Write the structure tokens for this entry.
Amino acid sequence: MAWLADNPPEVGPLFFGGGSNILPIPVFTLQPQSQTVDEYAMATFTAAADNATSYQWSKNAAGVGTDSASYSLTTTTADNGAVVNVTATGDGGSTVSNNATLSVTSYAYQLDSLTSKFVLSSPITVAIGDKITVNVICSPNTITGSSYSRFIGSEDFTITVDTGVDGNKFRLLGCTAKLGGVSIASDVTPIPTDLVARDLEVTLTKSGTIAAIAGLKDTSGRSINAKMRYLSFTRAAGNRFIPLNKVSQGGAQLPTVGTISASILNYNPAGWMSV
């Protein structure tokens, strides 16, 4: 039998199992889509992938949500241009979706002689040291003479504006104020009319109740082209924020962290302007 050692028989290929053991990776059947929404509105991104068992959403490369085929957020201007994508993971590995871009349109409401103020659904009680912030945009105007602006709806705290020959000047009552982070000197500081959105931050030196926030208006009822974007109350008892946005129906605005909202007196849809 020595010949067997010198001439071993040929052996065919060996098989272990009946097929491939490679698991399929996720394949997207629905990619997240770019979209444009109004500021403070809800944006929702949706995706779907075969062979996926979980999802991880990212906004600007930071993880924002796990294990859901959709991702929603309430937008602010800071979200404009955000890049959103999702990673689908399955037993065979992970796949990253296409990028979707979020565009956010910011609106301001142009107050005029008819729609002169935002009325709060319930008065807000404020104390000394509380702050009220109004984001405001002023454009050039030709109004002369004495004007009156009640940015704050109480006789105890008002900001009046004199548009006489010396130019637009703030006059403060019951408060101190900053415009764009710069302190306002009462009866000295001119009003910028360069169409730039700025926070008008008012710190109260008297206590009282606020029921409305009014815009710039002269003694003849003419507008000084003031646009307003939001109201914010910073208080020891809790902060409140009232966004003023076009997506709200009629004059009703989105509520604050509590239940208080703002409505536009004599609402006119044409008053909205993108900024």
About this structure: DSSP finds one helix and 25 strands in the chain. The radius of gyration is 30 Å. The chain has a mean pLDDT of 77.
